[in-house]
Specification:
The protein folds into 2 domains: 171 residues, Aspartate Aminotransferase, domain 1 (Alpha-Beta Complex), CATH 3.90.1150; 257 residues, Aspartate Aminotransferase, domain 2 (3-Layer(aba) Sandwich), CATH 3.40.640.10. Helices cover 37% and strands 12% of the residues. The protein has 15 helices and 16 strands. The strands form 4 sheets. Strands 3-11-10-9-6-4-5 form a 7-stranded mixed β-sheet, with helices on both faces. A hairpin with a 6-residue loop joins strand 10 and strand 11. GO terms for molecular function: 4-aminobutyrate:2-oxoglutarate transaminase activity; pyridoxal phosphate binding.
Length: 474
């Protein structure tokens, strides 16, 4: 039996759309009502989560969609997973929800075993974890950790005390206590919507308009020729990697302020599902070591199995391991992994807040990780992704203009392609919903697939049938 059949014996066998338009009339009514107290303008439809099961999401009009978007890549095991529901009845979860521990000062007795469980799915080479509240928060916390680590090293080590000048100047937001360090990120990146993370984000203007930002550099992310496996494209892509690596090194050497960290997504998700090669990711490691810069991998969207490995950057086998890896989304929690004990700040209360993450969410993360390992869901995602990619290659051959730059081969179900225009992409996504599949987009004209790890071949066949029908209707 597949994981979907094991978890969800009563999962729908096919999508079912009963309204002529989406959102349907009841969704329209509830979106309007919600809009009186909440900004509901981004809502596609109103979901009925009680009725949603496995890989199917149901809306309040009783439309049943095969879900390949999964709450913006955030559902690892499908809707109403029985193992997660069982977790709700445990004493550990009761304490975490009702008493919400302030984990820095009053950690629950459950926290240590929970973190031990979570660390079973840590990226290779990472041995410690610090938890947060969201993907943006995870990146903010990692940037803080990088700055403090970088400053300690520049100061001469963790035992060197802060100077009086540092202690006084930081209270006025001035140097040397508040140094002008920078983070180098990449054009088209998305790292969050807060202030440090927002300054690293460079995907769409709407994500950061009107927000004060740090004056930090954005390097160029490689833009590859597809398919990757032709000799001509391989040569061109190697040239592109080297060009972008040279830009990174030049910025580190010439930027007006010291660059303390490089922050990168192994696949730029919001920015268009742009993939970085193993050569490029290792090249960044070489550069960061050469210039004593912290290397942060943002695995908020790519992490926990979706790319056919537990963590996307593991395909690059980066040596030595990167300094920090951030996580959220499918983990149902957030934070960062690290391995150097010196990444822990030299004084308590420097990396701190009331809850230091959320014990309840870490319990959920631990259970999700255990289910992934026990049920071979990473291998399943790799297998199903290969199956789906082959089906999409057939469609690309038939409709090349609608499946440009098909990418994600050997990256599990983390698959995307481009349409000729934003208008045509939006029309396809709308048509797919009417044909029973909830699918997302990214950048200006890309379609991205983000199903759960319990998605299997029968779901692929349903999706391909709906996609084939949809491309003939747009």
């Amino acid at each position: 039996m597949t994981s979907a059949e094991t978890y969800y014996p009563n999962e729908p066998t096919t999508p079912k759309v009963v309204t002529a338009a989406i959102p349907g009339p009841e969704s329209e009514r509830q979106i309007k009502e919600l809009g009186t107290v909440f900004d509901s303008r981004c809502a596609y439809f109103v979901a009925d989560y009680d009725k949603s099961t496995g890989n199917y999401i149901v809306d309040v009009d009783n439309n049943v969609y095969l879900d390949l978007y999964a709450q913006i890549a955030s559902i690892a095991l499908g809707y109403n997973n029985p193992k997660l529901i069982d977790l709700l009845s445990t004493n550990e979860m009761k304490n975490a929800l009702v008493n919400r521990p302030a984990s820095g000062n009053f950690p629950a007795k459950e926290l240590a075993p929970t973190l031990e469980q979570v660390l079973k799915v840590a990226p290779k080479g990472q041995t410690h974890v610090w938890s947060g509240l969201s993907g943006s928060d995870a990146n903010e916390l990692a940037i803080k950790a990088a700055f403090m680590y970088y400053a300690q090293k520049k100061r001469g080590g963790e035992t060197v005390p802060f100077t009086t000048e540092e202690m006084e100047s930081v209270m006025d937001n001035q140097g040397p206590g508040a140094p002008s360090f920078a983070v180098l990120s990449f054009k088209k990146a998305f790292h969050g919507r807060l202030f440090a993370s927002g300054s690293c984000t460079c995907s769409k203007p709407i994500h950061k308009l009107d927000l004060p930002a740090f004056d930090w550099p954005h390097a160029e992310y490689p833009a590859y020729k597809y398919p990757l496996d032709t000799a001509e494209n391989a040569q061109l892509n190697k040239i592109e990697d080297d060009r972008c690596l040279a830009i990174v090194e030049d910025l580190i050497k010439t930027w007006k302020n010291p660059i303390a960290a490089v922050l990168i997504e192994p696949i730029q998700s919001e920015g268009g599902d742009n993939h970085a090669s193993a050569y490029f990711l290792q090249g960044l490691r070489d550069i960061t070591l050469k210039h004593d810069v912290v290397y942060i991998i943002d695995e908020v969207q790519t992490g926990l199995g979706a790319t056919g490995s537990l963590w996307c950057h593991e395909y690059a086998n980066i040596q030595p391991p990167v300094d920090l890896v951030t996580f959220s989304k499918k983990c149902q929690s957030a934070g960062y992994w690290f391995h150097d004990p010196l990444m822990v700040p030299n004084k308590p209360y420097r990396q701190f807040n009331t809850w230091c993450g959320d014990t309840a969410r870490m319990l959920i993360f631990g259970t999700i990780g255990e289910e992934i390992l026990n049920n071979g869901l990473v291998d399943q995602t790799a297998r199903v992704g290969n199956y789906m990619f082959e089906k999409l290659l057939v469609l690309q051959e038939k409709y090349p203009e609608l499946f440009a730059n098909l990418r994600g081969q050997n990256r599990g179900t983390f698959i995307a392609w481009d349409l000729p225009s934003n208008e045509l992409r939006e029309k396809l996504l709308k048509t797919l919903k009417l044909n029973g599949c909830n699918v997302g987009g990214c950048a200006e004209k890309s379609v991205r697939l983000r199903p759960s790890l319990t998605f299997d071949e029968k779901h692929v066949d349903i999706f391909i049938a709906a996609l084939t029908k949809s491309v003939t209707q747009i």
